[in-house]
Amino acid sequence: PFRFSREIHKFVKDSSEALKVSKVASTWKSYVDFVNNIVIEGFVASIAVSLQALCEIFNPESIARNEAFPLFEVKMELVDSKIIFDPPFLAKPLTNPSLRLTVDGWLKDFFATVTSMQRLDMNAGDYLNEIREHFQMQCLLALVSELIDDTETQCNKYRDTFMQHKFLWMDSIDKTFERFLCTDAKDLVEGFEEEGMSFGLIMERIKVDCGRAIPKLEEFDAKIHYFKKMTQELADLKTPIDIHWLRVNVQPVRIKLVNFARQWEEKHSKFLVKFTEDRIKAIVDFINNKLGGLAGTSPVDDPENSKLLYATMTDIRDVKLATNAVRKVFPPIRDLCQCLKRHAVVPEGLVELEQAGPKWDDVIRLAFDEKEKILPLQSEEVLKIRNKIDEFAEELRAFCYEFRQKAPFGPELAIQQEWDQAYQGMDDYYERVLSYRQRANEFNDLELLFDMQMSNYRELKECSEELVHLKNLWDGTVLVRTTFESWNTILWDKIDTETLLLSSRDIQAQVKNMPKPVRSWRLYRWLQEEVKNMGTVLPLVNDLHGETMRDRHWTQLMTVTQKSFEKGPEFCFKDLTDLSLHEFAEEVSEIVDQSAKEAKIDKKLKIIQNVWSKMPVTFDMSSPDCPLLGELGEILERLDGDALEMMGMTSQGRFIEFCKPLVDEWSGKLRAIDGALSVWQKVQANWCRLEPIFMQSDDIRAQLPDDSKRFEMMDTAWKDLMMDASGSSLIVEACCAEGREAMLKTICEGIDTCERALNEYLEQKKKAFPRFYFVANQALLDILSNGNRPLKVDEYLGDMFDGVKCLDFSKAPDTGRTACGHYSKDTEHVIWVNVMVIEGAVENYLTQLELHLRCQLREELEIARNAMDFWELPDQGKAREYWLEDYCSQLGLVGTQISWTEETHKAFDEIESGSESAMKEHKKVNDDRIDKLIKRVQSPLSRDVRNKIITVITIDVHGRDIVEQMVNRKITDPFDFLWLSQLRFFWGTCPQGQNLVSYTPEEQKTAVIRICDWTTIYCYEFVGNCGRLVITPLTDRCYITLTQAMGLILGGAPAGPAGTGKTETTKDLSRALGLQIVVFNCSDQMTYQTMGQIFMGISSTGCWGCFDEFNRISIEVLSVVS
After folding, report:
1. Where do the H-state alpha helices sit in 240-305?
2. Which of 700, 818, 682, 808 is nearest to 762 (CA)?
3. What are the contacts of 108-112 at 24+ separation with CB within 8 A?
4. How many CB atoms are located within 10 Å of the residue 857 CB?
5. How many degrees, rounded to 5, is the angle at CA 368 between CA 367 and CA 370?
6. pLDDT tens-digit series, residues 1054-1111
7. pLDDT tens digit string along 785-810?
8. Contacts with 136 (C-beta within 8 Å, 6 or more apart), sequence order
9. Who's near 463: CB < 8 A, 6+ residues apart?
10. What element of type H or E holds 137?
11. Is the separation of the CB atoms in 544 and 579 below 8 Å?
């Protein structure tokens, strides 16, 4: 590569000299870059060959296809409880030998060829960075890394197959084997019992070791087979094994695992061998021992040798006890031997085991023979033993009596805290009990030996048990007393009552759970009482430790306990226990409870005192001659709560004795503030409302001169009071000033008198013009004050006439004394036929305006009715769809309904005359008219005209539907209910004799409305261009029901879910009748006076009243209404 590098550099240099191009020229730089790229691509191609060859070597498919040999060999070893590869794929630290480090060295060598050539575009450096960052190089390097990762993954998977045996080297053989022995362990002989003695007790008595309990032989057999099989499988493992390009030598780890498995197998088999041999030796030695004793010198030959007699009797007793038990031992031992033979292990002593059975039969025979021989000697010895036993029993009874009398069963030593003396006494008795137990066991052995009746020595057993219980009771007593004594030195500030209570509860539970026998002893009763007293004292100490205790409460505690103490820095827990608080638990609880309540009262009282002594009051100074109270919302809210708190305090009795003067003081102040503010707010509200009326309205002052003078006096007093009060910045000073509340009440009474006179005056005006009943008093006063200024009154017309926004004063815009029309609230303009001159009192010209509006609407309706005759004669008049534009929406709709009613009756008449298709023709006319209106709506129109046409279409569609139903049902009778149930409009004079309300002179025609048998006259209340609701079958039912109710002089109450149109349907019916309707949204704030005003207005004007949510009115008001 170095030679090629020099040639390339020489070639570039020769080119530069031949071309004579500057080395800084862009063309020369481009040329050099071109050559650089050729060099880089050449290096890439060269290195790529090596990398591709390496990938081919690492590729598992290529290895399998070419049957290539592995590239490396590694060993698999068990080191520090881990199975590792040597060398590893990647070592730590990274500089240690590893497979990846080796491959990385190769890769570095591949790329090292690049460093042999200096760059062409600079005097130093090489192309190594460009080569490494080349896309092809990146891909090949990633492929090499991926192939190595795949091989490492496969190797790790193979290594994991050995991890299933990790317990062999991870777990402790001894501990695991011990757990195995304890699992479902069984004795050598199970379920054997003879003469009340179990097999184990018999073996213990004859001193034969049967060994520990072990699992079933099947479990041992399975374990040994398992480990033998595992050993063989591990030994048969193939090694080495090839994984891709790597040969793995498993021999090191295989040898270790085989050794481990063999150790586990030997642990089980060797234990079983030793256990079997020990059992054989124990039973064979026992049989040989008894055989030697019974076959030797007989006591008959040496009658004076009592030891020989006892030894012979012992052998006979052991043989008698173990006669059947020994025979039961042979089968389990033989099973152990068979199990070992299956694993090619022969234990020692098999011959002796086979001879043991016949030998045992010989021992039994010898025992019976010897027993018969020594029977006379045995009888003599029994009499001696019986005398000794009787003497021992008498001695034992005396001991038991002494024990119960002198042992420390009482609390005397505990009270004196003489623990050592108590334990010394129990130790002495314990030694004596052991001595008596030993002698008793010796006598029992003799009784058993000589076949005598066994003595149970029940008194000794009871004394032993009582001594144990007594020792435990004294342990508990010492623990309790020392624990309680350790608490005595705790200083008052350091007492943690929660911890002490937990300890006390634990001690109480321990004492309660002591054995039943001790519960009758005096010491236990004393201990129980001590623990109970402490359990009573600790909660009291906890309560006394509260923050609410004051010096006066500790004085009360001294009085109750009749003991004095000084609660200083040295005050500790013992000082409290010396008070014997458990004897005064109820009184102490009352003191603590009193302190808590007093602290609560004191805290609330201080809060109230701090808040109200600093509670500010603000004044509105916008009017310099009369400041007004500012916002009182927060003050009143706080006042309500604190007033209740003070009321609760005053009812606490003895709990407020320590602060009764302060409670009385602030209770009085809060009452004064509450009383003053309630009157103050009322006076201020009434003054603000009435001051413009009495002080600025010349009309009111002229009508009510005496009350105006009275109000002037109250006004002066009020302003003086407010000027004086505004000098205070605190609510307490402002409200509790001397005479403040009395002065406010005086002003309130004076203003109330003026207001009553004003209300009487307003009532007269309402009676003169009843629509004033539906106007707020403030608006009414404004109207009356501006009665001689029609332009100002005009602003309130919408409150009195629902559809009217204002009048048209275009002929007298300055004075407003001449009106020539009116505007609706939806901007519809209605021009009157006759102008109206406005003069006189406001209530008079408003009454005149109401009548004038009705007359003008009737006259315009009559003009519209006459023009309707030319709908079908365009040359003489206007077609219906254009005729609508000349009249207001309300009258256009009424005219259309009159026309529909007349044409429908005409169709009935034609049907009666024989024209069967008259109704169908009538329907076609309706359809044609609707189509023409629809076309007009689709053309550009003003908003008023569009709304007007849409309203007519809404009613026309309903009329067309009714005609269609009559066609479909083939109705020919004009008295059919389908027709009678519709609102039918007729143009004629008012029917006589029906007592109908009409605003039209009798000689003039008007619109007559009929539905079923109910008739009324159109009332000409202007409703504007507000549209109409779509009429549905439910609407028809509502119309029929409500009109029938009106005919019966009753009201209607549509019911149904919210938002279904009950109120709107009622309003729509009133618009159809041209009748005024007033809608009220009822609430629980409505009083019977309010309802009275409403009913007076309804009855005086003749309008409808629609009460929405009528059930919200309180039951007391509804009772008055009914």
Report:
1. 251-295
2. 700
3. 110/47, 110/50, 110/51, 111/47
4. 25
5. 65
6. 988 888 889 999 999 999 999 999 999 999 889 988 899 999 999 999 999 999 988 8
7. 787 888 888 888 888 998 899 999 99
8. 44, 48
9. 399, 400, 403, 404, 429, 433
10. helix 135-160
11. no
Strand 804-807 relative to strand 246-249, pairing: unpaired
pLDDT in tens, 440-454: 777 776 666 666 677
8 Å CB contact between 265 and 224: yes
796 in Cβ contact with 775 (< 8 Å): yes
Q: With contact defined as beta carbons under 8 Å apart, do 905 and 1085 qualify?
A: no
> What does the chain come to in residues?
1122
SS3 of 812-838: the string is: CCCCCCEEEEEEECCCCEEEEEEEEEC
Q: CA–CA separation, 247 vs 75, rounded Å?
A: 8
Do the bridges between strand 246-249 and strand 72-79 make them parallel or antiparallel, or are there none, so unpaired?
A: parallel
Residues 6 or more apart in contact with residue 782 via CB below 8 angstroms: 792, 796
CB 299 within 8 A of CB 308: yes
Which residues does 102 contact at the CB level (< 8 Å), separation at least 6? 72
Q: Which residues pair with 987 in a beta bridge?
A: 1007
Closest CA to 363 of 331, 328, 332, 317: 317
- The set of residues, in sequence order, having a beta carbon less than 8 Å from that of 922 and lying 6+ positions away, is 903, 904, 906, 907, 963
Cβ atoms of residues 476 and 526 within 8 Å:
no
CB 1065 within 8 A of CB 1110: no
Cα gap 898→909, rounded to integer Å: 17
| Residue 451 backbone class (left: φ over 0; alpha: ψ -120 to 50; beta: rest) | left
Neighbours of 37 (CB within 10 A): 11
* Measured distance CA(487)–CA(507) in Å, rounded: 14
Buried residues in 209-242 as b, exposed as e (16+ CB within 10 A): ebeeebbebebbbebbeebbebbeebeeeeebee
What is the tens place of the pLDDT at every residue in 120-169?
666 666 677 777 788 888 888 888 888 888 988 888 888 888 888 888 88
Q: Decide: helix, strand or coil at residue 609.
A: helix
Helix or strand (DSSP H, E) at 629:
strand 628-629
Query: Residue 426 is which amino acid?
Result: M
Cα distance between residue 349 and residue 811, in whole Å: 148
Q: Are 485 and 433 in contact (CB under 8 A)?
A: no
CA neighbours within 13 Å on the CB side: how many for 1080? 24
Max Cα–Cα distance, the chain, nearest Å:
174
Half-sphere exposure of 152 (CA within 13 A, CB side): 15
Residue 779 host element (H or E): helix 777-785
Q: Are 773 and 1096 in contact (CB under 8 A)?
A: yes
Based on the number of CB atoms within 10 Å of its own CB, is 26 exposed (0-12), middle (13-18) or buried (19 or more)?
exposed
Cβ atoms 284, 349 nearer than 8 A: yes
DSSP letters for 864-892: HHHHGGGTT-TTTS--HHHHGGGS-HHHH
563 neighbors 578 (Cβ within 8 angstroms): yes
Reported pTM: 0.48
Strand intervals (E) in 885-1013:
984-988, 1006-1011
As a whole number of angstroms, the distance between CA 1110 and CA 1090 comes to 14
Are 1117 and 1086 in contact, with CB atoms under 8 Å apart? yes
Three-class DSSP category at 324: helix
Residue 1016: pLDDT band (50, 70, 90) is very high
1017 three-state secondary structure: strand
- Residues with Cβ within 8 Å of residue 393, at least 6 apart in sequence: 455, 457
In which residue are the tokens 């009440």 written? 745
User: Do 258 and 231 touch, CB atoms closer than 8 A?
Assistant: yes
CA 232, chain centre distance (Å): 62
Q: Which DSSP category does 1030 fall into?
A: P
